[in-house]
Amino acid sequence: MPELINDTTDGTQATAEGAADGQALRPHAEDSFAGELKALAAADDRPRPARWRLSPWAVATYLLGGTLADGTVITPKYVGPRRIVEVAVTTLATDRALLLLGVPGTAKTWVSEHLAAAVSGDSTLLVQGTAGTPEEAIRYGWNYAQLLAHGPSREALVPSPVMRAMAQGMTARVEELTRIPADVQDTLITVLSEKTLPIPELGQEVQAVRGFNLIATANDRDRGVNELSSALRRRFNTVVLPLPATPEDEVDIVSRRVGQIGRSLELPPAPEGLEEIRRVVTVFRELRDGLTTDGRTKLKSPSGTLSTAEAISVVTNGLALATHFGDGVLRAGDVAAGILGAVVRDPAADRVVWQEYLETVVRERDGWKDFYRACREVSA
Predict the structure, then answer these.
(1) What tens digit of pLDDT does each residue of 197-253 get?
(2) pLDDT of 155
(3) Where are the chain's structural domains?
(4) What is the CATH number of domain 4-240?
(5) How many CA atoms lie within 13 A of 183 on its CB side?
(6) For helices 34-43 and 56-64, angle between their N-to-C axes, nearest 10 degrees
(7) Where are the annotated segments for Disordered (predicted)?
């Protein structure tokens, strides 16, 4: 039997054997890119803030990609304006927390994870925000067996990821901050302004040591959003992550992520599928922008966001279909159902938008006949 170990993030259990032999379904960033982080650390001779594994320059290089003097290639983790990454990294080197803001699918979580991995070597100090996130998830909880047996004590206290990051001088992450109830959000105010977390039950406090900082992600386009108070928003330096600027950038992002996810799922590479990726990206961008790429036809936009993340999901699912139920070549029929599911969220209004787009744009586009037939078949 493999030894069971507690996951440091949420108390769930994993096997030590599974972690050791690389069978994790989604390895943490610091594990997936350990070789690149090690090479950067060896080549990095620039000043590093307290307890940082890399200098700010090396952190930015890790996210944006580059080639080191010894020939090591650092793959880009984020495709977008360099200045955005530089501002985000610089913020973490100060005493200001970082808020990554953007519509769904702009790689906020991806950037947050890789920033924490490069800065602290650990991206697992994570609070996942939901409508049911309690205050204890940000502050601390109690081991109730210890509490009942011995009363309040440090041994009975269960530190949150934020508390552990403060004590160890590391980077904590709070995902989907605006989904957390407003009164729980404001628990962070003392942490970010005073750099301390009081424990009134013990008459003690945990003070943040040098190196501590916090990255939060949020968007204001989803349902169930709780606005940040002005007091909390002032504690953050906000960096807005835009959607990919060009179709080429978005195709590059989708191709890279599908390749990474495909390898983890043991799906074969699909170089012939680049044309289908371009089609998916084109459909999403046109419906998202309400305008065809040539600027000639205005379109109605569906209720969904049609983000890059959803395009990645559609193509990954299509690749799995092609692998397990086809000949391994990604074709229009493999992505058609995924596109329909992404576009038609509201069965009444969105279906009208989709049908109009198919008949007025896709049907008349040169070289898209197979795509049109596949989409008509699943839409019937």
Answers:
(1) 999 999 999 999 999 999 999 987 766 678 899 999 999 999 999 989 899 999 999
(2) 92
(3) 4-240, 247-379
(4) 3.40.50.300
(5) 4
(6) 140
(7) 1-24
